[in-house]
Specification:
extended, two-stranded antiparallel sheet
């Protein structure tokens, strides 16, 4: 992928460091921008804290 002046643009991917696996997540689907950078749904600040995302209704069991 190249920018307007022909320079290479880095791919958009989740930048969460998975310490136990010693690697970055690198997921590219459903990314959202947060202060620490781009995050996939599994690595948002709320998900890492064990909470659901604000504005997303809780699923009620049937």
């Amino acid at each position: 992928m190249t920018g307007p002046q022909g320079e290479e643009k880095p791919p958009l991917e989740c930048g969460h460091w998975i310490g136990a696996e010693r690697r970055y997540c690198l997921a590219r689907d459903d990314l959202r921008r947060y202060q620490p950078g781009l995050r996939c749904p599994a690595h948002t600040p709320a998900a890492l804290a064990g909470r659901r995302e604000p504005g997303i209704p809780a699923v009620q069991p049937s």
